[in-house]
Design goal:
The protein contains 12 helices and 2 strands, in the order H-H-H-E-E-H-H-H-H-H-H-H-H-H. By secondary structure, it is mostly helical. The protein has a single domain, classed as Farnesyl Diphosphate Synthase (Orthogonal Bundle), CATH 1.10.600.10. The protein has a two-stranded antiparallel sheet. Strand 1 and strand 2 form a beta hairpin. Helix 2 runs antiparallel to helix 12.
Length: about 300
């Protein structure tokens, strides 16, 4: 398979095909909520998949069931947080009601399992994919629950507590497509372990970027900051205080994020050079923080 043999238009076509095959999801084919995201997980799967010697249809299906799970998690998150806007469009619950949003999110999870279970790969691969999807959903739910109940514990550092929640809630969905690629290509356990370490760290690095955007009220596709309103563990809100300059908080968080990226880069040493360079080129710009703004709106530090 040639490099760049799959473009994102084919990925979107595959997603819309699966939507069109379901009598409920087909009614959402023109819903911009589903088609206005960055598609990072799909891009990651297709770009890295070029080096795993797999058929195009296999890559597209991995990207598709990962995107279905991701969208399910977003729908449920919006419902829990009562956010009415995402990606510059009304959220599903805000437009269609809470009950329908919950059911659509559940349906997307079910469809992810169906795509994986009917893909054109060996039954042993599909069996492992089923485990990975189930494990991913379990970790994501645990992370979301821990986020809801987040309390600072004296016996553990704030950074460690934050990492555990973000790695569960965000990390598993980042690593799923590449882990499934490695399984389909029968890569050894060392590769799988490296991928888990890489994506746990990069996912938390991304969550920090997301926290920063929310803290500054500059989150793409959303006109307001929601973390502080919903009591979510945003690292900037957790570390900001009135007794030190906000610029110092930005510097401290930037240093922590840099350590996560360095750890991910070190873990990638066991991967083929092409995969390593692709990950760095695609993901490092994706998690890059903005510098401390010289002028910024006043941010309330209390819920």
């Amino acid at each position: 398979m040639e490099t760049n043999s799959i473009d994102l238009s084919r990925f979107t076509e595959r997603l819309k095909f699966y939507f069109s095959q379901d009598p409920i999801l087909s009614s959402f084919l023109d819903e911009n909520y589903f088609w206005s995201g960055q598609g990072m997980r799909g891009k990651l799967c297709l770009k890295v998949g070029q080096f795993f010697d797999l058929e195009d249809d296999v890559l597209l299906d991995i990207a598709a069931f990962t995107e279905f799970l991701h969208n399910a998690s977003l729908i449920h998150d919006d419902l829990i947080d009562k956010d009415v806007e995402r990606r510059g469009h009304p959220t599903i619950w805000a437009k269609y009601g809470k009950s329908k949003a919950l059911l659509v999110g559940d349906l997307l999870i079910a469809k992810a399992f169906k795509i994986a279970s009917t893909a054109g790969v060996d039954s042993s691969v599909k069996s492992q994919w089923m485990f990975e999807i189930s494990d991913t959903v379990s970790h994501a739910v645990r992370g979301a629950l821990n986020e809801l109940e987040f309390k600072i514990q004296d016996n553990d550092s704030l950074y460690d507590q934050y990492f555990k929640v973000a790695a569960d809630k965000t990390g598993v969905l980042f690593s799923l497509p590449v882990r499934c690629l490695a399984i389909a290509s029968q890569s050894d356990a060392t590769i799988l372990d490296s991928l888990s370490n890489i994506f746990s760290n990069l996912a938390v690095a991304y969550q920090i970027k997301d926290d920063q955007a929310d803290f500054l009220g500059a989150k793409a596709g959303r006109s307001h900051s929601s973390d502080i309103l919903n009591g979510r563990p945003n690292l900037y809100h957790l570390l900001a205080s009135s007794d030190r300059p906000l610029s110092e908080t930005f510097t401290a968080i930037s240093k922590y994020q840099s350590k996560l990226i360095e750890s991910a880069t070190a873990s990638s040493a066991s991967l083929p050079i092409q995969v390593r360079l692709t990950l760095e080129k695609l993901l490092l710009p994706f998690v890059e923080l903005k510098p401390y703004p010289a002028s910024h709106p006043e941010i309330s530090l209390t819920t």
